[in-house]
Amino acid sequence: MHGYAHVVAAEDMTAFGTDPWWLIGIKAVFCFAFLMLTVLLCIVLERKVVAWMQLRIGPNRHGPWGMLQSLADGVKLMLKEDIVVKGADKAVYILAPIVGTIPAFMAIAVIPFGPPGNEVSIFGTRTAMQLTDLPVAVLYILATSSIAAYGVVLAGWSSNSTYPLLGGVRATAQVISYEVAMGLSFAAVFLYSGSMSTSAIVAEQDDRWFAVLLPVSFLIYLVSMVGEAHRAPFDMPESEGDLVGGFNTEYSSIKFALFMLTEYVHMVTVSALAVTLFLGGWRAPAPISTYWEGANHGWWPMLWFIAKMLVLLFGFVWIRAALPRVRYDQFMKLGWKVLIPVSMVWLMLVAAVRAMRNENYSFADIIYWVAGAVIIVLLLSFLVDIFRERGEKARQAEEEKQQAESGGVPFDPMAGGYPVPPLPGQALPPTPRRPSRAERDRELVGTAAEPAEPAGPSESNTATSQGRGSDDA
């Protein structure tokens, strides 16, 4: 009942929409400036942190300690020559960066930086530290992030070039794959909070963060948000190793800068959303909020929110410096065969637990039922693996038998005129091993040490006649 009262209070949208027009404008400008300043700071700190991790110096020319490097990069990109590819669809080519950038900024409008009540005073007017809120605020964020993917897709298609098109197709597949897992991780949060409002979700984390209650959902979201932001090691849409630059290969100047800006804005947005849904939002961490009653009042909540968000942004940089880029098929397999099935099973488990709590089952009974269900699932998966392994062994033995009966004809990968992979039941011939240097040296030494064979009678006579002929000459 206590949590329900929190939800009702937080979902009372009368706290929003009553600000004067000038205060709404100030909040909107603050949201835009907050994203821009965070992006500028994030770019230069990423370059500095990655340099430190790789024992390099990093930016150290522009500004004190190189802190104005990202601003210098932005000015440089705006002053570079703007090139439009001759064969491109010009209207879509120019519109694509704009379509990708604008929705990236829209999600911050429903992120709460503080309590929903009139907590702070701005020029004498009491207001909440949030631009607005919606009963379906999280769905609004998902919608804006999905629309931003159209900018990448349209950029790859309108460039009329092979590599950008492949990058756009990869970006589309990433969004489809990882937004499913992301949405399922959000569903568990909705079940526990009873709301899709961001302020209501934060209100429900007054006792315990959802990252503790729903650890699987939190981990799935962390992986999904890296894939959603097209960040390393999941930056296949712009993989320079095989796509030159991906969807932005044919872009330059300010349009290229907009794509880079969109990527970093997405980093900030998904980190802010993770803080809101799983890390208590603007609430102070447990030790501070326990011993200091004023930690969650006034302007302090904004400090806790920004600190948590910076920790997640540092995680983005750390992952980029530590992990290599994965193959695209591995990335898609992770999304469809691991994250989505795990998130669906976890969601069913969370729904079952919530239903049992509503039916007044004791905590011990819930543990017994959940443990029993997990054991049954593990046993079934074990039996499936056993039978699958037996079937594979039997099929392999049958294929070997058929190959032996057919005379064991070796597989020729160039039989059709071009290299092809082996079909099921076929195997490549063993690759001849190149002898090592020591083996070659032993062979040479052995050849030199072999004694000369004695010459036969005919050879000796020939040699004698040749010698006499030379003497006569």
TrEMBL record:
Top EC class for this record: translocase
Segments traversing the membrane: 21-45, 92-114, 134-157, 178-203, 209-227, 264-282, 302-322, 334-354, 366-387
Molecular function as annotated in GO: NADH dehydrogenase activity; oxidoreductase activity, acting on NAD(P)H, quinone or similar compound as acceptor; quinone binding
Keyword Transmembrane in annotation: yes
GO CC terms in record: plasma membrane
The EC number(s) this enzyme carries: 7.1.1.-
Annotated segments matching region Disordered: 397-473
Topology versus the membrane: Multi-pass membrane protein
Keyword Cytoplasm recorded: no
Domain of life according to the entry: Bacteria
Residue ranges, compositional bias (Pro residues): 419-433
Subcellular location per the Swiss-Prot or TrEMBL entry: Cell membrane; Membrane
Short name of one Pfam family: NADHdh
Record family assignment: Belongs to the complex I subunit 1 family.
Entry function: NDH-1 shuttles electrons from NADH, via FMN and iron-sulfur (Fe-S) centers, to quinones in the respiratory chain. The immediate electron acceptor for the enzyme in this species is believed to be ubiquinone. Couples the redox reaction to proton translocation (for every two electrons transferred, four hydrogen ions are translocated across the cytoplasmic membrane), and thus conserves the redox energy in a proton gradient. This subunit may bind ubiquinone.
Protein name: NADH-quinone oxidoreductase subunit H
Gene that this polypeptide is encoded by: nuoH
